[in-house]
Amino acid sequence: MSADDLILHYFEDIKEGQSASLAKTISESDIYLFAGLSMDTNPAHVNEDYAQTTVFKTRIAHGMLSAGFISAVLGTRLPGPGAIYVNQSLKFKAPVRIGDTVTATVTVTGLVPEKKFVTFRTTCTVAGKVVIEGEATVMVPARG
To answer: CATH for 3-139?
Structure first.
């Protein structure tokens, strides 16, 4: 992603119902890189032999890897650069596997003008199925 891909929405420009999305296909490398960065080396993510003994029968991506795509949308698309996370709730609904394409979407659900806060419904889907849902509050830059 380059600087040309960044989209900035000032608080005054944001309206309820606005939404933005990003999609990423999960690779084996993504899982190993995330495991290294997060120090979460749970074998359900990094060891296929172990993962085959789990309810999922194969390795699954870290939930927070997919949740990170929500942060990417908020920081690069809506509201965009300068947005600061205040709060995020997440509910993990289904696993994400290697090869799945995760689409993270944020939709404006409320505005708090005195604090320049925006609330969002946040979701991640795979093939139209919700795998993560939640709500975020973000502080957004104002024009003035």
So the answer is: 3.10.129.10
